[in-house]
Amino acid sequence: MDLIRKLTELNHRTTIREELEKRYPLNPSKEDIEEELKLDLRNKFMLRYDKVNNRQFVVSKSYPIEEYRKHVLVVDIKQNTQHPNSLHK
Secondary structure of 4-69 in the HEC alphabet? Predict the structure, then answer.
């Protein structure tokens, strides 16, 4: 689980850096004031969007295993009745 967490964090930070380059590209040939403003905006953007709760997994619907087994058994019985000569167990 630690590996997944680290990979998710790395992916999230990479995505944020790509977005920073799109929104606030740095150009060293421009004025220092403009570059300082962009750096400040970049830092604020990172602080705003680089949060742990942005990297959490979305809860999905889960089924009890017994319900799944019943469904598989019903499907299996239907297949055996449709093809009685099959060796399907």
Answer: HHHHHHHHHHHHHHHHHHHHCCCCCCCCHHHHHHHHHHHHHHHHHHCCHHHHCCCCCCCCCHHHHH
